[in-house]
Amino acid sequence: MIDTLAIDEAPAEASERSGADIQLSVIVPARNEADCITECLISLAAQSDEGFVLGEDWELIVVDDGSTDATRELARGVGGATVIAAAPPQKGWTGKANACWTGAKRARGTWLLFTDADTVHEPGDLRRAMHEAERTGAKLLSYSPRQIVSGFWQHALMPLIFSDLARTYPPAMVSNPQSAVAAANGQFLMIERGAYQRSGGHAAVAASLLEDVAIARNVKRAAAIRFRYAPDAVCTRMYRSFGAMVEGWTKNLALLFPSPLLLAFYRVLDLCLLIGLPVLAWKLAVVPQKIIVILWWLWRAGLYVTRVGKSNFPMRDCVLSIAALPLYAALLCRSWMVHKITKRVEWKGRSYSA
């Protein structure tokens, strides 16, 4: 277990806290996030208002995870943020789990919010989230942010993935204590300190490449959790290039879906039905047969768009997603191969055992 912290801008004796004495600790793990961390921290610092004062009622902790760019310097430039540095992760730990655990040990809040450096928070979302958790009795509250996408492939691919996520982890089932389905999004994961400690926190999921879902499963065994789509609270731009998107989903898809190869087959079948049927109708010589095929295709296309529409992306992107079906199937197969065959996952300059 990691128990040493290298701390900037905080006295050494503050690195370990025995108990909570403020309402909330916001913990931002960051590794080479110079292109987005300033906007994230400014949106968080702006949450401070009368009765919820940064530094008195809540704190903002940035954990630098071995960044080699200007992440640490930019974080220091945001007033109210405490910047600490995580020790290099020990064997069996992912960098993010190590950074989150480092921040949690430094935190003083009754509630802990882990949020990624690529998120932007709407005014007042921290207080509203705490009230929502207390009102619903949830010990863990997680939001799925509004996704900001750019470029053709992000607009086309992301609705496919998020629609399948919505089918695999329905928020109503995740929030239902009678259901075994558990999920969380590490971009916004708020947890009551006691529940975090009882579940083992990030130390209990140190090796997991999907630590948010693993924590949700651990917490749900003994306490209520709540998960929902929250465009009113937070947004994120997950990937800033095609290569980063491929790397990120290669890491995650085989972990998120229980049968990635079967899912890839179904998406190829979608492609065959949506593209093949119009071609078949065109080649049919008899008009009544053409009409039957076209009507059946319209029905299938309607079902497809309805399903992908559950991704919470604009309808234009849901229609455009047909073009990304081959890419999605390829990424599902690639992720399966990485996890099952090569058993090495590359992420943010580090290599992990799968």
Give a written overview of the molecule.
There is one protein chain. The chain has 354 residues and is of the alpha/beta class. The protein has 13 helices and 13 strands. Helix content is 46%, strand content 18%. An 8-stranded mixed beta sheet has the order 1-4-3-2-5-9-7-10, with helices on both faces. Strand 3, helix 2 and strand 4 (81-86) form a beta-alpha-beta unit. Helix 10 (260-283) runs antiparallel to helix 11 and helix 10 runs antiparallel to helix 13. The chain is elongated and about 75 Å long.
- Rg calc: 22 Å
- How big a fraction of the residues is strand? 15-25%
Domains (count): 2
Helix content: 40-55%
The total strand number stands at 13
**CATH structural fold name of the largest domain:** Spore Coat Polysaccharide Biosynthesis Protein SpsA, Chain A
Characterize the main sheet.
8 strands, mixed
With strands numbered from the N-terminus, the spatial order across the biggest sheet is 1-4-3-2-5-9-7-10
Which architecture name of the largest domain does CATH use?
Alpha-Beta Complex
Number of helices: 13
Topology, pairings included?
Layout: E1 5-7, E2 22-30, H1 37-45, E3 58-64, H2 71-76, E4 81-86, H3 95-106, E5 109-115, E6 119-121, H4 125-136, E7 140-144, E8 146-147, H5 152-168, H6 171-174, E9 188-192, H7 193-199, H8 211-220, E10 225-229, E11 234-236, H9 242-256, H10 260-283, H11 287-308, H12 315-320, H13 325-342, E12 344-347, E13 350-353
Parallel strand pairs: 2-3, 2-5, 3-4, 7-10, 8-11
Antiparallel strand pairs: 1-4, 5-9, 6-11, 7-9, 12-13
Helix pairs in contact: 9-13, 10-11, 10-13
